[in-house]
Amino acid sequence: MTSWLLLAEAGAPEGGLFDLDATLPLMVIQVVLLTFILNGLFFRPIGKTVEDREGYISTSRADAKQKLAQVERLEAQLTEQLRGARQQSQQLITEAEQEVDRLYREALAMAQAEANTVREKSRQEIEIQKAAATQSLQVEADRLSNLIVDRLLASR
Amino acid sequence: MVSLSFPFHIAELEVGQHLYWQIGHLNLHGQVFISSWVVIGALLTLIVLGTRKMERDPKGVQNLLEFLWDYIRDLAREQIGEKAYRDWLPFIGTLFLFIFVCNWGGALVPWKLVKLPSGELGAPTADINTTVAMALLVSLSYFYAGLSRKGLRYFEYYVEPTPIMLPFKIIEDFTKPLSLSFRLFGNILADELVVGVLAFLVPVIVPLPAMFLGLFTSAIQALIFATLAANYIGEAVHEEHH
């Protein structure tokens, strides 16, 4: 390698700061080649990854927004339904209460009516017995008074 | 060709010495090709390592490469515009990465360990041929971009606001590549010379601030070259809305 370099150096011209030579076109070719190599190895694959990711993020974000809106709608719907169900249950409760009240009153009325009838019956019975007793007493009283009168009359 | 040497030979400084290779009757600056192949090899190794198994959740080298790609894409998109930047992204990115690794490789790699028979290894961009080559490529590409997108209407650009601008725009076509090449060449060569002279005078510690400054400015030069290249291309494909 060194000898080849020395050989190459053998017919070398004087150097200088602004020494433009065949390095120029070869450098141009080198940079152009490098552009194509970097494009294939770096810009295209990394570009694809970054842009895929950006697309994925934006679609996921759009998806997530949509899902969020859907969830909110469902939530509103369910609260609505819940409210309706509660109202309905309230209604049923009041109806049941009223029903119970009515039944109670009916039973009470019925019992009272029955009690009244029984009382009436026994009062009547008592009346009858009283009447019978009064009658028998009257008869006894009559008899006794007749007896008294007889005795009185008899003793004179 | 200048050569200074101290009495007890701590360091030498020479400018303009090249390692000549000959192909036929053409001369090449061998040292430029050797150092550029080394830095390109390092760059390609990094890229191959980073793109081997691409994951949706990047980490390590892939993360770094994606960050670079994003950075270059923003640069190209801002200068060239949404419609055409995709086609020119690889070229602008290559310019940026190549100049960046050349400059930093020239500053950080211990080239002096390899002794060449003539001249020495350094940053490939410290050679006028490299920078002029890239500047000419930029010139060609903005012409190509303008002509391929607009056809012969591209030449309306020369008389755009008023026809008085014509001579200035023609001169611009020469000054653009000239300034691009000399800006980069001058910055990198000057940094090498400053560090060389400082090391020649006080070899330890003192050159360090200049070396750090050199890293910073050479990175910025890579960015400037790529941005200007993108700007010229963007200007060429730009549709005027009046």
Task: Tell me what you see in this structure.
The complex is a heterodimer of chains A (156) and B (242). With 156 residues, chain A is mainly α. Chain A has two helices and no strands. The N and C termini of chain A lie far apart (194 Å). Chain B has one domain. The termini of chain B are far apart. Chain B is mainly alpha-helical and 242 residues long. At the A-B interface, helix 1 and helix 2 of A face strand 3, strand 4, helix 1, helix 2 and helix 3 of B.
Summarize this structure as a short list of keywords or feature phrases.
heterodimer, A: 156 residues, mainly alpha, 91% helix, disordered N terminus, B: 242 residues, two-stranded antiparallel ribbon, two-stranded antiparallel sheet, 6 helices, 4 strands, 64% helix
Q: Categorize the overall geometry of chain B.
A: globular
Q: Give the integer mean of the pLDDT values of chain B.
A: 88
Q: Structural class given helices, strands, pairing of chain B?
A: mainly alpha
Inertia-based shape of chain A? rod-shaped
What is the rounded Rg of chain A?
63 Å
Helix content of chain A: over 70%
Give the uncertain stretches of chain B in residue-range form: none
SSE order of chain B, one letter for each helix or strand = EEEEHHHHHH
Instruction: Please give the alpha-carbon distance between the first and last residues of chain A.
Output: 194 Å
Mean pLDDT, all residues of chain A: 88
Low-confidence stretches of chain A: 3-12
- Enumerate the strands of the largest sheet of chain B in spatial order, edge to edge or round the barrel: 1-2
Number of self-contained structural domains of chain B: 1
In percent, how much strand structure appears in the residues of chain B? Answer: 5-15%
Radius of gyration computed on alpha carbons of chain B: 21 Å
Assembly state of the chains shown:
heterodimer
Separation of the first and last Cα atoms of chain B:
54 Å
Task: Give the strand content of chain A.
Answer: under 5%
What's the main sheet of chain A like?
none
Keywords (chain A): ATP synthesis, Cell membrane, CF(0), Coiled coil, Hydrogen ion transport, Ion transport, Membrane, Plastid, Transmembrane, Transmembrane helix, Transport
Organism (chain A): Paulinella micropora
Protein name (chain A): ATP synthase subunit G
Family (chain A): Belongs to the ATPase B chain family.
